[in-house]
Amino acid sequence: MAKSVKLSEIVEELNLKIIEKSSDYDEIALSDANINRPGLQLTGYMKSFPNKRIQIIGNVEYNYYMQLTEELRYERFRGILSEEIPCLIFSYDRQVTQDILDLANYYDKTVLISTDPTTLLSSKLSMSLEKHLADEITMHAGLMEMYGSGVLIKGQSSVGKSETALDLVIRGHRLVADDVVEIRRIVDELIGTSAANIRHFMEIRGIGILDIRRLYGVGSVKLDTGIDLIIELENWNENKEYDRLGLEDETETILGIEVPKITVPVKPGRNIAMIIEVAVRNLRQKKLGYNSAKYLTSRLFNEMNGEDKEAKNYYGEEIDLYEDER
Asked: Which residue in 47, 240, 244, 326 is the catalytic one?
């Protein structure tokens, strides 16, 4: 079933002013993240009218219809308001003429006013609708922002996710969520946040519930972040062969998007927070075109075969293998 959001929620969120309210205002649900500026409809062309979208009257549309005769203006807006539109919004805090209000009242439609310019209003509406209508899931994990990248920390219960996240906070990184992460797909990006009722709180066994924001300041927490890397923590298994070179890139798919993933074995003596920091730094290097494992492999291969001291980076561009030794 398609997701929807109440029009009243959007109106409150964007601080829109109601000047005409329909009888079903509290029940109107929006399921289309797109918006429409009915310029063509004001010329009388009603074919393929996207009437399920929010309709915005911007500066251009307003100036155009104000030049029409009263009879023609009435006819054009009758064509728009007689359709099943969710609402009509005027930007720039424009004064709505009485004939339009009469039509809205007759056809039982909601008319709103925004003080924002049209472009800003459209942007705010699109962002709000995409946020509310995006596909989403909830995961049992922690989420940190590190060096500008979002890191999802997964693992079975008692493996040390919260303790690792706390260690990362102490090292200067920011907590987004502990234990429960709400993930939305907005366009082609995953955005993670915390449930509102437990935001900025963390549970540490033996201590209890901690308020990270009060303990470490507002700079230690963040409302949301994109998800760029998944760290899977698991108890060390002596019988398992762990990746020691990093030549194979592992990924995990969340809401149809592949995210780089690294499995980190946990055992006493290992500094997991430091390992995750290094993993994030290494991911940034890969995005810039440098893969240390492939670099070293290529370097050793060339030395063994007596070939030219040339290799290629992640994007196939030639690099000097011994530049750092000169």
From this structure: 244
